[in-house]
Amino acid sequence: MTNAIFPSKANDRLLMIFFIIVVLAGPIILAPFGAGYPDLLQRFAIFGIFAIGFNILFGLTGYLSFGHAAFLGVGSYSAVWMLKLLSMNVIPAIILGVVISGLFALVIGYVSLRRSGIYFSILTLAFAQMSYNLAYSVFTPITNGETGLQILLDDPRVLDGGTKPGELPLTNLFGIPMNATQKVEFLGMTLQFNFGFYFCAVILILAFYLSLRIFRSPFGLMLRAVKTNQNRLNYTGVNTRPYTLAAFVISGMYAGLAGSLLASMDPLAGAERMQWTASGEVVLMVILGGAGTLLGPVLGAGFIKYFENIFSKINDNVLHSWFAFMPDGLENVMVTLVHPFVGKGWHLTLGLLFMAIVIFLPGGLMEGFNRIWRKITSKRETATSDTSSDAASTPAE
């Protein structure tokens, strides 16, 4: 379901319709896999936005940033400060998070983009680690250090008129709490339709649409040209720095949007969101799903978050329930064999899977889907041509 499947602009509408249906039906689709609860669905949507933004930089220009988590953290801190000072309405918090992250990305990008390749990657990593250490120890009056920034009872919140004594307020959208949830029984499953998830889902859809327009625009075409051969563009007199800087800032604003959404769902911001491991995680998401594709980053984000939150919870009791149909001795053997790859060993399984995809599907999971799609369509075309040739060779009676 990427550009290879929908190669023409006329089919972009079909891609958007497909994406909207899948995202909005998330609670129903993911419920059988144990991932239909609101907190995880929100993380799927938020980190999907994070990965989409990173893909605009890495997938289109080829510039690999190892410091994008800095913008995620800046967006979170900015949003929490807005929740503390102005209102628990999430709209001002999100706007401030996106704006501050964009300005921060403009400064870092202006310096980092003076270099390319591994030197650019190291520069972004250095800036991210400096940001993490500043947030952790130097700027403690602003970030609250290792404890993290959170809302308090005595925060002014000038538009809300303060807080009722002994009661922390909830983040909301014009009075609708983010944790408002409606439970529905469906085919023996309890589905939870959470307002916070659908708020994040709508923003994810808008972020995906903007990414689609960037991919299809002349600006996106120039970014692809930068990735193909930036030196040749420079030799022809084209100044590529404004384009790469714009892509870097847009990508940073996407990360700030994701960070502000994290703070809007759970009003807490900590320095750990700015660590290099968080930057590496979004790199894995994009590569795993398919760098330079439209749906790949969202798929990769969901895949990794599923492993982190569901696959990592599989313990020996669950394994015994899986293999309970086997004789006792064989059941214990199977549990012993599978145990290192689940639960706390989920990183091992993810690492092996990532290695297999990089080796056999360099284009990510979306390359695998594209191969399957081409085989299906080619079989249909072959069957149609065979039917046509048979009909043509049959003599008329």
Automatic annotation (TrEMBL):
<keyword id="KW-0472">Membrane</keyword>
<feature type="transmembrane region" description="Helical">
    <location>
        <begin position="44"/>
        <end position="66"/>
    </location>
</feature>
<feature type="transmembrane region" description="Helical">
    <location>
        <begin position="242"/>
        <end position="262"/>
    </location>
</feature>
<dbReference type="Pfam" id="PF02653">
    <property type="entry name" value="BPD_transp_2"/>
</dbReference>
<dbReference type="GO" id="GO:0005886">
    <property type="term" value="C:plasma membrane"/>
</dbReference>
<dbReference type="GO" id="GO:0015658">
    <property type="term" value="F:branched-chain amino acid transmembrane transporter activity"/>
</dbReference>
<keyword id="KW-1133">Transmembrane helix</keyword>
<feature type="transmembrane region" description="Helical">
    <location>
        <begin position="86"/>
        <end position="111"/>
    </location>
</feature>
<protein>
    <submittedName>
        <fullName>Branched-chain amino acid ABC transporter permease</fullName>
    </submittedName>
</protein>
<keyword id="KW-1003">Cell membrane</keyword>
<feature type="transmembrane region" description="Helical">
    <location>
        <begin position="15"/>
        <end position="37"/>
    </location>
</feature>
<dbReference type="InterPro" id="IPR001851">
    <property type="entry name" value="ABC_transp_permease"/>
</dbReference>
<dbReference type="InterPro" id="IPR043428">
    <property type="entry name" value="LivM-like"/>
</dbReference>
<feature type="transmembrane region" description="Helical">
    <location>
        <begin position="195"/>
        <end position="215"/>
    </location>
</feature>
<keyword id="KW-0812">Transmembrane</keyword>
<feature type="transmembrane region" description="Helical">
    <location>
        <begin position="282"/>
        <end position="307"/>
    </location>
</feature>
<feature type="transmembrane region" description="Helical">
    <location>
        <begin position="348"/>
        <end position="369"/>
    </location>
</feature>
